[in-house]
Design goal:
The protein is of the alpha/beta class. The protein has helices at 50-57, 76-82, 94-97, 159-168, 179-182, 188-199, 218-225, and strands spanning 11-15, 19-21, 24-26, 29-34, 40-43, 62-67, 87-90, 105-106, 119-123, 133-137, 142-145, 205-208, 214-215. The chain has a single domain (11-110, 118-229), classed as Metallo-beta-lactamase, Chain A (4-Layer Sandwich), CATH 3.60.15. Strands 1-4-5-6-7-8 form a 6-stranded mixed beta sheet, with helices on one face. It has a 5-stranded mixed beta sheet with strand order 9-10-11-12-13, covered by helices on one side. A two-stranded antiparallel ribbon has the order 2-3. The longest helix has 12 residues, at 188-199. 38% of the residues are buried.
Length: 231
């Protein structure tokens, strides 16, 4: 239901269904943060069942649903249906890709939400494809990344997928930005500025949606993951 041990107080990791994109198997994960107000902030809502929704309800009222990039859309509609009172925040390119899914605000367009004192965000620049929003949960010093950094568990892969994900640069502790995604960054200077902005934040943990999170000492892992950008 929730992953243990928890990274920090008032922050929970919830695994979702395993999915495939272009035939490639992925594990999925949501991050649930309880704000000082008591409301819950849900990063990358994953597909869940009613039993798991009940576990979320036990943590507090769901106040915000966050779609951190235009690819992570599958869980948004069922969560909106379950929690119609929640504000839905969308990545810059989300509405263009999913015009049928309505949001209340768009990152980088609308003013920051009431949660901004606790959770900072940055729209990562430079890609012709990905519109990812990266977050810093200040109380737990945790960086939240969606697809920009992937570290798929080597032990959970068949030999075939181990080889594929290793070649793609998204396997285990050495994982980072997939080679296919790197090719979409046509403005490397803008991407380096985004990387530098993120690296200036005060974080010690790395939470990702696909693979193994880094608990403690995450700055080195993030720096390594973005080493392909150079200086």
């Amino acid at each position: 239901m929730f992953e243990t041990p928890a990274i920090a107080e008032n922050l929970w990791l919830m695994p979702g269904d395993d999915l495939r994109m272009y035939g490639i198997p992925f594990t999925t994960r949501s991050t649930i943060i309880r704000l000082a107000s008591g409301g819950l902030w849900i990063h990358s809502p994953v597909l869940r069942n009613d039993k798991d929704f009940e576990a979320v309800d036990a943590l507090g009222p769901v106040a915000y649903l966050v779609a951190p990039n235009k690819i992570h859309s599958l869980g948004v509609t069922p969560w909106k249906a379950r929690y119609p009172q929640a504000e839905t925040w969308l990545s810059p390119g989300f509405t263009q890709r999913h015009p049928d899914i309505k949001g209340d605000a768009t990152f980088g367009v609308d003013p920051p939400g009431a949660w901004h004192a606790e959770i900072e965000f940055h729209v990562f620049q430079g890609s012709a494809f990905l519109d990812e929003v990266v977050f810093l949960h200040k109380p737990s010093r945790s960086l939240l990344v969606t697809d920009l950094i992937q570290k798929h568990d080597p032990k959970a892969q068949s030999l075939f997928w181990w080889v594929v994900k290793k070649a793609a640069g998204v396997l285990g502790k050495d994982g980072g930005t997939g080679r296919d995604l790197r090719a979409t960054f046509r403005d490397r200077a803008a991407a380096r500025r985004s990387r530098d902005q993120i690296m200036s934040w005060d974080f010690d943990n790395l939470i990702i949606c696909h693979g193994e999170c880094v608990r403690g000492g995450a700055k080195a892992a993030v720096e390594q993951a973005f080493s392909w950008l150079g200086r």
